[in-house]
Amino acid sequence: MRPTDLSRELGLEAKHSFCAGEPRESRGSHVSPASVHAESYWLGSLDATVSPADPWLSNFDKAATRSLGSAIALGAVRFFRSKAALFERLHKEGGEVSLLVSFSPTAVGSFTLSPEVTRTFGELKVTVEFEVVEE
Prior knowledge:
Elements: H1 3-10, E1 14-18, E2 41-44, H2 56-66, H3 68-82, H4 84-92, E3 97-103, H5 115-124, E4 126-132
Parallel strand pairs: 3-4
Antiparallel strand pairs: 1-2
Helix pairs in contact: 2-3, 3-5
């Protein structure tokens, strides 16, 4: 799937993307044969300040300030389930879907993921990664 098509399907703009077969940017000043990307890649953000098109995102940001677990639950139930057919198509085509949750330990003391949330991500084959970001 082309990254532009994925952006349209998700209703989110990519922060970074490239398509299989597109030329890679050269690194450094040495001359090397042209190479191309072997696979497509798309990275986006579920951040209401970046992607205000979907009204549930403002609720996502509010929930995250109160409870990271609640915000992830809201994301699983509202956003990811609504895109289930897209994720199934991506998996059938050999793609992978990951959710990276970045948070500050000063903003989030602890959180809990309910069985419903973990089951939803499992059924959708979405890998969930957590990253603690020091301020």
